[in-house]
Amino acid sequence: MTYIPTAYTLEELEKFITYQPKLIKLQIYDCYDVEYLPDSIGNFVNLQELDICDCYSLKEIPHIV
Predict the structure, then answer these.
(1) How far apart are alpha carbons 56 and 40 in whole angstroms?
(2) pTM above 0.90?
(3) What's the pLDDT at 2?
(4) Cβ atoms < 10 Å from Cβ of 28
(5) Per-residue confidence (pLDDT) for residue 1, from 0 to 100
(6) Alpha-carbon distance 46 to 22, whole Å?
(7) SS3 content of the chain, % helix, strand, coil (to 5)
(8) Can you tell me whether residue 42 is helix, strand or coil?
(9) Distance CA 59, CA 4 (A)
(10) 17: part of which helix (H) or strand (E)?
(11) 28 - beta bridge partners?
């Protein structure tokens, strides 16, 4: 699978990172409890699009993104 429509929590996002290394598009919507994206998001070597919307608590995105 190379597309996951939405990750709602940090735990779901970390699970995607572990099991979907060839992901090319990731949408993160309405993640009210997510304050940061893990550095491991850099493991998506094929990631072409990162769409973040309505994540009001998000304060930090790794520099590798």
Answers:
(1) 21
(2) no
(3) 47
(4) 24
(5) 40
(6) 6
(7) 25, 20, 55
(8) helix
(9) 22
(10) helix 10-19
(11) 52
On whether the CB atoms of residues 63 and 39 are closer than 8 A, the answer is no
Contact 46, 22 (CB under 8 A): yes
Residue type, 33: D
Per-residue tokens: 64: 């590798």
- pLDDT tens-digit series, residues 2-61: 455 566 677 877 777 777 778 888 888 887 777 888 888 887 888 888 888 888 888 988
Length of the chain: 65
Neighbours of 37 (CB within 10 A): 26
CA 30 to chain centre: 12
What is the rounded CA–CA span in Å between residue 21 and residue 33?
Answer: 24
pLDDT of residue 52: 84
